[in-house]
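Researcher: Structure for this, please.
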Amino acid sequence: MSPGLLVAVGLFGGVGAVARFLLDGAVSRRTGRAFPYGTLAVNLTGAFLLGLLAGAAVSGSAYKLAGVGFIGAFTTFSTWAFESHRLGEDGRLCLGAANFAISLVLGVALAWLGREVGLAL
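Model: Predicted structure, token format:
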């Protein structure tokens, strides 16, 4: 990987992280913080977009910039896992399990849907 591409992936990652922060905040302001809807929205959007890139056969530098840089920084496995754990720790085990299951099932479904849309392009 060239130094220029490495810097560009970092810049795209920065944009992805800011986009995650903004989307999570906007969703959470509207829905409250009893359930991590913001993180759910971020991760489901990212799963769809990554599927779209795969379906559209984006590769090489474009994939590294969009998939690894932007979407990699936009989505967040660690926050999803932590928020699920925190819900259980707070005595809301059913909500924690629901967050885990809903994110997993819908994430896979949206990655598939994004891939199908990408294949159709």
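Researcher: Any notable elements?
Model: The chain has five helices and no strands. The chain has a mean pLDDT of 97.
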